[in-house]
Amino acid sequence: MSTEFIMPKLGLTMEEGTILEWLVEDGTEITQGMAVLRIETDKVESDVESPGVGRFHRVGNQGDTYPCGALIGYLLADGETPPVAQVNAPAAAATPAAASSSSAPVASSAPVASTIAAPRREGRLFASPNARRVAKELGIDIETVVGSGPEGRITSEDVEEAHKNPNAPRVSTSSTSAIAVAPILSSNGNVLATAAARQLADLLGVDLAQVPYDAADGRVTKEGVAAFVRSQLAGSRSPSTPATHKDSSSTEKSTASTASTTVLAPASQTPTSIKKMSGMRGTIAKRMQSSLQEMAQLTLHMDADLDAIVEDRESRKSSSNNLPGFTDYVIAAAARALKLHPIVNSQVTTEGIALLPEIHVSMAVALAEGLIVPVIKNTTSLDLAALASETKRLSGAAREGKLGLAELEGGTFSVSTLGMFGVDGFTPVINPPNTAILGVGRLRDDVVVSKKGKVSTVKRMTLSLTWDHRVFDGAPAAEFCKSIVDLLADPSALNK
Question: What does 330-388 look like in DSSP terms, one character per residue?
Answer without folding.
Answer: HHHHHHHHHHH-TTTSEEE-SSSEEEPSS--EEE-EEETTEEE--EETTGGG--HHHHH
